[in-house]
């Protein structure tokens, strides 16, 4: 995995991938950041906005790359364009605005991440109701971790029939002191359980707000 930019976002990704035993090559043009991370990761000091620099470090040999450069919009766009040109098949790019995101998508980024926006949405869902975590997967379909509403306490899922009533499905349950378990129709919801629930985002919100 090629990771370009060792700011907070890129460094966190590179470091995590390294702990997962994924082969990582980091590219950073700031010599101070290169020195800081060189004892931890394979790092090359180079300017990835220059196609020749990417060619020299063998970037085309990587099938996937992360562009962690976000605040410097021009650099972000140039780097992403360079990766598209050399045929990287999976490009993940950080954006700082919806306009930036649209540009990256149009020039060929396969996945665009808006870290602050996505983190803000997750926190908003958490503080606004019973949800403890929230992830929008795609096209409105989301997954939430939440406490069970009172009406579900001590009932099995087949009796609750939550999909017909609320349009959501409980896909897993975590009871205290017990490993996470995938749900079945016979799964009984206890008051102190944690639920993993999937469905349309608006329907999840309504379900989470039930008393």
Description:
- With 211 residues, this protein is an alpha/beta fold.
- It folds into 2 domains: 112 residues, NAD(P)-binding Rossmann-like Domain (Rossmann fold, 3-Layer(aba) Sandwich); 91 residues, Regulator of K+ conductance, C-terminal domain (Alpha-Beta Plaits), CATH 3.30.70.
- Helices cover 37% and strands 27% of the residues.
- It has 9 helices and 13 strands.
- The strands form 3 sheets. A 6-stranded parallel β-sheet has the order 3-2-1-4-5-6, sandwiched between helices.
- The mean pLDDT is 89.
Brief overview:
The chain is an alpha/beta fold and 211 residues long.
Level-2 CATH architecture of the largest domain: 3-Layer(aba) Sandwich
Q: How many domains comprise the coordinates?
A: 2
Rg calc: 22 Å
Share of residues in strands: 25-35%
Number of strands: 13
Secondary structure blueprint with pairings:
Layout: E1 2-4, H1 8-19, E2 25-28, H2 31-37, E3 43-45, H3 51-56, E4 64-67, H4 73-85, E5 90-94, H5 98-107, E6 111-113, H6 115-127, E7 131-138, E8 141-146, E9 155-156, H7 157-160, H8 162-166, E10 168-174, E11 181-182, E12 188-189, E13 194-200, H9 201-208
Parallel strand pairs: 1-2, 1-4, 2-3, 4-5, 5-6
Antiparallel strand pairs: 7-8, 8-13, 9-12, 10-11, 10-13
Helix pairs in contact: 4-5
């Amino acid at each position: 995995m090629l990771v370009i930019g060792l700011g907070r976002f890129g460094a966190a990704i590179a470091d995590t991938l390294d702990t997962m035993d994924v082969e990582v090559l980091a590219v950073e043009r700031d010599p101070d950041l290169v020195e800081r991370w060189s004892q931890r990761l394979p790092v090359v000091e180079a300017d990835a906005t220059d196609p020749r620099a990417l060619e020299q470090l063998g970037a085309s040999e990587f099938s996937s790359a992360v562009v962690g450069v976000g605040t410097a919009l021009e650099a972000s766009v140039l780097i992403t364009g360079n990766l598209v040109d050399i045929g990287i098949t999976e490009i993940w790019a950080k954006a700082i605005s919806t306009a930036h995101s649209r540009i990256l998508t149009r020039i060929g980024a396969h996945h665009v991440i808006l870290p602050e926006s996505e983190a803000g949405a997750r926190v908003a869902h958490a503080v606004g109701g019973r949800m403890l975590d929230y992830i929008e997967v795609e096209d409105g379909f989301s997954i939430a971790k939440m406490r069970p509403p009172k009406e579900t306490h001590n009932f099995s899922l087949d009796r609750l029939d939550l999909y017909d009533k609320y349009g959501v499905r409980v896909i897993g349950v975590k009871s205290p002191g017990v490993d996470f378990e995938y749900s079945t129709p016979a799964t009984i919801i206890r008051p102190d359980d944690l639920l993993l629930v999937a469905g349309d985002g608006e329907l999840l919100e309504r379900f989470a707000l039930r008393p």
